[in-house]
Amino acid sequence: MVLKNKNLRYLSVAILGLQPLVYTLASQILLDLPLNFLILLLFYFLLKKGTSLKKKYLAIGIILGLLSSVKYPFPFLLLPMFVITLISYLKKETKYLILPLLIAPIIYLAQYAIFFLNDHSLTDFILFEKYRFSWWMGDRSMPKFLIFENLFTGKYTGWWENKPMMKNENWNLFLPLLFVSYLAAFFFNKKNRINHTLFLYSLAVIILYGIGSATYLRYLTQIIPFWIVLIISAIENTSMKKKAGCWNLFKK
Q1: pLDDT values of the chain reduced to their tens digit, one per residue, 252 residues
Q2: Domain C-terminal end among 104, 138, 172
Q3: For burial by CB atoms within 10 Å, which of 73, 77, 111, 118 has the most?
Q4: How far is residue 242 from each of residues 36, 238, 246, 249, measured CA to CA in Å?
Q5: Looking at the 3D structure of the chain, how many domains does it have?
Q6: What share of the chain is helix, strand, coil (3-state, %, to 5)?
Q7: Hey, which residues does 157 pair with through a beta bridge?
Q8: pTM for the full model?
């Protein structure tokens, strides 16, 4: 458990829910919200202790399958798969990886049931997947790291004709402060596997979004919960150290 204090857990949820970026997204019909929920659920099962390993990796497989159905799996699922593989290796649970590796593709293919029932062949499926991959890997000539410009200013420069300045209505100063605080929290948090996993995963995601020319701040709602939890965890950890220091002085 990252946060030991229940009230701090409630506080982290409240901070997340009060973000205009989050509650505006919740009112829109976009795939980001179910995607974010599934990512949080994935990390919940991945880092949860005291669960049957078969049930744990069965749940991970189902979640990966659902994630691949919500968002095109390449390259999106490469990072979660890397994290799952690394954690299972460190915990000596690699033999259970066979479960998600079997279940996720089955769930992914299940979404094509109607496709195959309407007389489409396996060749049609392969050609369609090839088209999807080609579309995703299409024009990437737009500037890199625009998402950082948007994060720190609430605006980004369009790369098309006349280069208009695009403004984000849901931006506020709290977002860049949150990001900087999240980076600083690394130095004040406990150095354990959970904190390192959450920090490195969320950092890798935003870097990949920058390289991939992502611009919209809604993409960050996938990792903002990790930022908040790590910040509050650092505050909790610092507070506990101060209390312990005061108690040691009192005993002397």
Answers
A1: 678 888 999 999 999 999 999 999 888 888 888 999 999 999 999 988 888 999 999 999 999 999 998 887 777 889 999 999 999 999 999 999 999 999 999 999 998 999 999 989 989 999 988 888 877 766 666 788 999 999 999 998 887 777 788 898 899 999 999 999 999 999 999 889 899 999 999 999 999 999 887 889 999 999 999 999 999 999 999 888 776 555 454 455
A2: 138
A3: 73
A4: 35, 6, 6, 11
A5: 2
A6: 70, 0, 25
A7: 165
A8: 0.89
**Runs of H (alpha helix) within 18-166:** 20-26, 32-47, 53-70, 73-76, 78-90, 98-110, 113-117, 122-136, 146-153
Tokens matching residue 59: 């749940």
Integer Cα distance of 15 and 225 in angstroms: 9
Q: How far apart are CA 110 and CA 118, in angstroms?
A: 14
- Asked whether residue 62 falls in the same domain as residue 87, the answer is yes
Which residue segment(s) compose the domain that 133 sits in?
31-138
Q: What are phi and psi of 166, to 5 degrees?
A: -95, 125
Closest CA relative to residue 226, chosen from 6, 92, 26, 39: 39
Which among 98, 123, 138 is the end of a domain? 138
